[in-house]
């Protein structure tokens, strides 16, 4: 299953969870396994693309040995790595589950158990896809994801527009066989021109191929 559909293209993919430190032993994170991002990275690499994968801690690694991996921990680190690469890329896929907020202060020592409750003050993280979306060049294609629990289509379309994506991949937490951790996913692709495509529940490798087919449908703007 090798082809040359994306030969000569440089592809940036973010994948996996971010970890936002609370103190030296604790963090805030989410359930992303990196399976979806790894499948997309392999699909592009097996289609001749030069793939750069910015990968959260513990996230699944792709199989194709030519993929360049940039390990990161926090949303800030993910942003640093992605923004250094962005200018040279042709296609960017934002598959990572990035923490929207991080602790305002990281305690330098392990926080002691004192009192019956505690409060951690959080501050907003950089939105990687939104920030790079503002720097998107005419020849570049940006693909985003939306992970939703309610009002799925509305939120996905809002993110498509706000983050300047050319296509957004919606997966719903309400859908059996879709989302975090699983080897399968069920998605809808929404394009800028208002069209959309729905998938069945399929292995993430098949979903990745469908996403690549979606990218091929995006009109080149040059
Ligand atoms: O890793 P798996 O276990 O295989 O699961 C796959 C997945 C469910 C994580 C994946 O398919 C997915 O949906 N990834 C995006 C999850 C997410 O954070 O969605 P969101 O709706 O919160 O974010 C919208 C988009 O903005 C995403 O493209 C996200 O990468 C991006 N974003 C969000 C916040 C932020 N600070 N920076 C970003 O770049």
TrEMBL record:
Biological role: Catalyzes two steps in the biosynthesis of coenzyme A. In the first step cysteine is conjugated to 4'-phosphopantothenate to form 4-phosphopantothenoylcysteine, in the latter compound is decarboxylated to form 4'-phosphopantotheine. Catalyzes two sequential steps in the biosynthesis of coenzyme A. In the first step cysteine is conjugated to 4'-phosphopantothenate to form 4-phosphopantothenoylcysteine. In the second step the latter compound is decarboxylated to form 4'-phosphopantotheine.
Binding residues for CTP: 100, 110, 145, 159, 163
GO cellular component entries: phosphopantothenoylcysteine decarboxylase complex
Keywords of the record: Decarboxylase, Flavoprotein, FMN, Ligase, Lyase, Magnesium, Metal-binding, Multifunctional enzyme
Pathway of action: Cofactor biosynthesis; coenzyme A biosynthesis; CoA from (R)-pantothenate: step 3/5; Cofactor biosynthesis; coenzyme A biosynthesis; CoA from (R)-pantothenate: step 2/5
Phosphopantothenate--cysteine ligase, as annotated region: 11-222
Keyword Magnesium among UniProt keywords: yes
Free-text comment on the cofactor: Binds 1 FMN per subunit.
Native source organism of the sequence: Cecembia calidifontis
Cofactor: FMN; Mg(2+)
Similarity-based family: In the N-terminal section; belongs to the HFCD (homo-oligomeric flavin containing Cys decarboxylase) superfamily.
GO molecular function, one term: metal ion binding
Record's catalysed reaction(s): N-[(R)-4-phosphopantothenoyl]-L-cysteine + H(+) = (R)-4'-phosphopantetheine + CO2; (R)-4'-phosphopantothenate + L-cysteine + CTP = N-[(R)-4-phosphopantothenoyl]-L-cysteine + CMP + diphosphate + H(+)
Name the record gives this protein: Coenzyme A biosynthesis bifunctional protein CoaBC
The protein's Enzyme Commission number: 4.1.1.36, 6.3.2.5
Secreted recorded as keyword: no
Gene behind the chain: coaBC
Included stretch of the parent chain: 181 to 402 of 402
Domain DNA/pantothenate metabolism flavoprotein C-terminal: 7-217
Record-level GO BP terms: coenzyme A biosynthetic process; pantothenate catabolic process
């Amino acid at each position: 299953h090798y082809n040359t559909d994306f030969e000569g293209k440089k592809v940036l993919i973010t994948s996996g969870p971010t970890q936002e430190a609370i103190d030296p032993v604790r963090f805030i994170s989410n359930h992303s396994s990196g399976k979806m991002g790894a499948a997309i990275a392999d699909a592009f690499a097996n289609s001749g693309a030069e793939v750069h994968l910015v990968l959260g801690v513990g996230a699944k690694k792709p199989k194709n040995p030519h993929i360049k991996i940039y390990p990161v921990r926090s949303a800030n680190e993910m942003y640093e790595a992605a923004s250094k690469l962005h200018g040279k890329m042709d296609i960017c896929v934002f598959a990572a589950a990035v923490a929207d907020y991080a602790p305002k202060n990281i305690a330098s020592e392990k926080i002691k158990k004192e009192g019956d409750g505690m409060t951690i003050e959080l501050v907003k993280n950089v939105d990687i896809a939104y920030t790079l979306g503002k720097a998107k060049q005419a020849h570049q294609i940006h693909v985003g994801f939306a992970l939703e629990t309610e009002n799925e289509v509305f939120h996905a379309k809002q993110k498509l527009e706000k983050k300047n994506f050319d296509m957004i991949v919606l997966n719903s937490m309400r859908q059996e066989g879709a989302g975090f951790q699983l080897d399968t996913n069920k998605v809808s692709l929404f394009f800028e021109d208002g069209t959309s495509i729905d998938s069945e529940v399929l292995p993430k490798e098949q979903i990745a191929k469908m996403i690549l087919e979606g990218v091929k449908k995006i009109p080149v703007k040059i």
